[in-house]
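The following record pairs a protein chain with its ligand, Z3D.
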Amino acid sequence: VNQPIPTPQSPRAPAAIIVEAVMPELDAGRHAVKRAVGDLLDVSAAIFKDGHDLLAARVRYRGPNDDTWRTLRMRYDNDADRWSAQFPVDQVGAWTFTVEAWTDVFATWRSELEKKHNAGQDIASELLEGAQLLEHTAAHLAHPYARAQLLRLAGLLRDTDFEPYTRVRVGVAPELLAVMEAHYIPGDLSTFERELSVHVDRERARFAAWYEFFPRSATTDPHRHGTFAEAEKQLDRIAWLGFDVVYLPPIHPIGVASRKGPNNTLTPGPNDPGSPWAIGNQHGGHTAIEPALGTLDDFDRFVKRASELGLDIALDYALQCSPDHPWLKEHPEWFFVRPDGTIKYAENPPKKYQDIYPLNFWCADREGLWSACRDIFLFWIGHGVRTFRVDNPHTKALSFWEWVIAEVRKDHPDVIFLAEAFTRPNRMRYLAKAGFTQSYTYFTWRNTPSELQEYLTELTQGPMREYFRGNLFPNTPDILHEHLQHGGRGAFRARLLLAATLSPVYGIYSGFELLEASPVRPGSEEYLDSEKYQIRVRDYDAPGNLNADMRRMNQIRRENRALQLYDNLRFHHADNGAILFYSKSFYKNDLLIIVNCDPHHTQEAIVHVPLAELGLTEHTPYVVEDLLTGARYTWHGAHNYVRLDPQIQPGHLLRLVRPEGEQRQ
Ligand code: Z3D
């Protein structure tokens, strides 16, 4: 049986030209890739057809505020055999693009004409063909002057009173080429079968230093709950340290029934404050403020003060309820009620959350529940919050995230969502595809140079770089890695250096600067006397603190554009397995970073500098300046010696100093 020939309307209509492998794209256009404002979007494609005709191609694209499509001609790169064009994405929000190609009939004619004429062949019929092409194009021109001009040139091509040489000059004139490029109407326009999307974020989505602290600990007495007014004072210190985003664990009323006590015990005393993730009591739920912290007005003042200091406030978005949350009475149908009327507490195996109930995202009143969850975002957005750290997103419906992020972005495309997706790789990646701006990563558990190199290569060099931004935290209230428990000051300093330079987004949880390292019991990753269950008073100026390190680090990040980009990380060889060597480069900003990942011993290595990539040669010495210490070294050739004593400095953060006026080769 013969297959019917597809009609032009059918999805796989016959195309004169093949347009394929369009990049960037994610899962055949199912999800948006990510960029930040100011980035150049580089669109490329494989485009070809049978025979010898010359092709032309363009990107057709549209920004969030465009009513109509814009187009941009693509250029062909012979070595890559791909077409490409770049344009700046200068607005936050959803961008769409596709690729179109057509036979460049005029350019094909022009090049044939030139070749034949140069070879001394007869070109009489070529000139007539050209005249026809011009006349055909002129017929579609609206502007009378442009039309007349093109017809006059067509007349010259036909005019046998002129020498063939003169007529060829008319045919190949660059001015004519420009007119024809602008006005030629393709007869065989072939469009890539999909429109692809890009979500463009504000720059902080890609470049930011996060600082987490519990506002209730902003007090001088562990028996007196800290308030927003006191927490406001912490903001000056955090801004001085050079952070950009302040992340607060939940600030809502905390459940009383099944409240947890210190060190995750299930028998709290009457004055224990409970875990802030156990959200809701008689004072309200996810849109209320824990009365001991203050009022909504106090919170507004806190946000305002932060914004004066250039800090974004990130709130925790934890979709779960303590047994005392108002939703239990108002919407029992949103929970998993068992036949005997009880509700099972939440879990994230092997962790047990006896003080919270999970929500049933697939309950009969799904629409009611999902809308209420969206409204929590909108409520806090209404109070000036533009960043959310989303608690355990992998324990909630994946489709919910896709829906709610899109809903929020309709009116607030600049909102940043950080996924606390400590889960298996596929789910972790999917959450990023579903729209999360950033994600926590496995960095906390990657401590050796080989582990770090493998993992960061995957994050920043593989397909994930298009849609997954890893926010590197050396510690969180849930994770005190044994490397920090046993590594002392050297480990803390090295982990800070690694987090702050391997990714442009990183964060630390307070207490890190005080080298807090005691686990609740040997072998556990939980902090002793964790702030999750009790108020902790700290003296942030205690001797030995890392304040100066953190401030310097954040300042260096602000001064070096190479540290603000995500996918410009490259690893290089060091001949000692305890030392990690990598570079970050951007125009006129080349950084060589060498970290001793062994917190206990001095380590030495010969590092192999990628001379060619840096435009350096074997024979000319070059200067590198350590931005951490100010020391300058003159290096020779590719192989250079380093020695790092963890008691003195965790690593080198070297900037290549190019002599004034010297051009990069
Ligand atoms: C984590 C949260 C805390 C405590 C638990 C407690 C729970 C509820 C967890 C659940 C998600 C996320 C948070 N990983 O701190 O757990 O550790 O003991 O049962 O109150 O809150 O929200 O970071």
